[in-house]
């Protein structure tokens, strides 16, 4: 174990002890839980870094999915920071592929979960770097433009949208009005540590700007393909396909 890994292990022990103390207040506990989660992600990532000689996957996969969670796609190498991915990797640190080495990068409902601008812009540049010329980046996110366009929504419509997105979440009982729904699209911050917050909201125009800035030649709307994308994401999401 390296000195850094020893430090991280000691830190985790300290965080657990502080969290277990009755003196720890609600605000401090929230921050400590977030820190524990980051430490655990960091450990997954460090273990994968140690397994990769030269820091890149060899041979390079033809297609990769980023942040697929439980939605694995056949024929793709599935990269996520938590299981059941093929590679546990923190994409905020880059994409571990060689330059110009892959044909397709797919993600949906992932981009809004990494901080903007640093990590979102880094991701766009990394996707551009690893794609071969002509390669394609497909990206789907919750469509903030759609959600905002419905405001102010009548209570029945608000209830329908809330049910579609949050029926299975523990937070469901706290999402009561349309403005609560808008808050969630922009800042999804469940106290449940298994959820990643939303850090930034996107629409078609923002995706075009982000990927053009990263060097992609064209960014067009992508026609939803349920053989690849998660069918539950079809509603109220916006997808684009960017070509290098
Ligand atoms: C809301 S889920 C979406 C899962 C799937 N794409 C879908 O549409 O059902 C977001 C996913 O992004 C992953 N994720 C978040 N931050 C990440 C990071 N820094 N590196 C890799 N994956 C990350 C999470 O672990 C999670 O699986």
Care to describe what's here?
Residues 94-138 form the Methyltransferase type domain. With 244 residues, the protein is an alpha/beta fold. The chain folds into three domains: 3-51; 56-143 and 202-243, Rossmann fold, CATH 3.40.50; 145-187, no CATH class. It is built from seven helices and seven strands; from the N terminus they run ααββββαβααααββ. The protein has helices spanning 3-20, 26-51, 118-130, 144-149, 155-166, 178-187, 204-213, and strands at 63-66, 77-80, 87-88, 102-108, 131-142, 218-221, 237-243. A seven-stranded mixed beta sheet has the order 3-2-1-4-5-7-6. Strand 4, helix 3 (118-130) and strand 5 form a beta-alpha-beta unit. The longest helix is centred in the N-terminal third of the chain and has 26 residues, at 26-51. It is flat, with a radius of gyration of 19 Å. The model has no long low-confidence stretch (mean pLDDT 94). S-adenosylmethionine binds at residues 67-69, 71, 80-82, 90-92, 108-110, 113-114, 196, 230, 233. Residues 67-69, 71, 80-82, 90-92, 108-110, 113-114, 196, 230, 233 line the site of S-adenosylmethionine.
Give the proportion of residues in helices: 25-40%
Number of helices: 7
CATH topology of the largest domain: Rossmann fold
Shape: flat
What ligand molecules are bound, each kind once?
Answer: S-adenosylmethionine
Tell me what portion of residues adopts beta-strand conformation.
Answer: 15-25%
> What's the architecture of the largest domain in CATH terms?
3-Layer(aba) Sandwich
- Characterize the main sheet: 7 strands, mixed
C-alpha end-to-end distance: 41 Å
Order of helices and strands: HHEEEEHEHHHHEE
Query: What's the total count of β strands?
Result: 7
């Amino acid at each position: 174990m390296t000195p850094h890994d020893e430090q991280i292990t000691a830190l985790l022990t300290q965080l657990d002890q502080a969290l277990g103390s009755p003196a720890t207040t609600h605000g401090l506990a929230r921050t400590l839980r977030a820190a524990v989660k980051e430490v655990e992600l960091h450990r997954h990532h460090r273990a994968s870094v140690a397994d990769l000689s030269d820091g890149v996957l060899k041979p390079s996969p033809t297609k990769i999915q980023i942040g697929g969670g439980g939605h694995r796609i056949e024929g793709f190498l599935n990269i996520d920071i938590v299981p059941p991915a093929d590679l546990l990797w923190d994409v905020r640190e880059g994409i571990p592929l060689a330059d110009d080495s892959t044909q397709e990068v797919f993600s949906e409902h992932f981009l809004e979960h990494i901080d903007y601008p640093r990590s979102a812009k880094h991701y766009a540049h990394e996707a551009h770097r690893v794609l071969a010329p002509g390669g394609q980046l497909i990206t789907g996110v919750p469509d903030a433009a759609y959600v905002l366009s419905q405001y102010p929504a009548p209570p029945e419509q608000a209830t329908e949208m809330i049910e579609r997105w949050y029926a299975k979440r523990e937070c469901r009982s706290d999402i009561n009005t349309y403005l609560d729904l808008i808050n969630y699209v922009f800042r999804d911050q469940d106290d449940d540590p298994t959820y990643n917050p939303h850090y930034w909201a996107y629409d078609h125009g923002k995706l075009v700007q982000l990927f053009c800035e990263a060097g992609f030649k064209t960014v067009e709307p992508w026609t939803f393909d349920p053989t690849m994308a998660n069918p539950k994401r079809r509603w109220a999401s916006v997808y684009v396909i960017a070509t290098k």
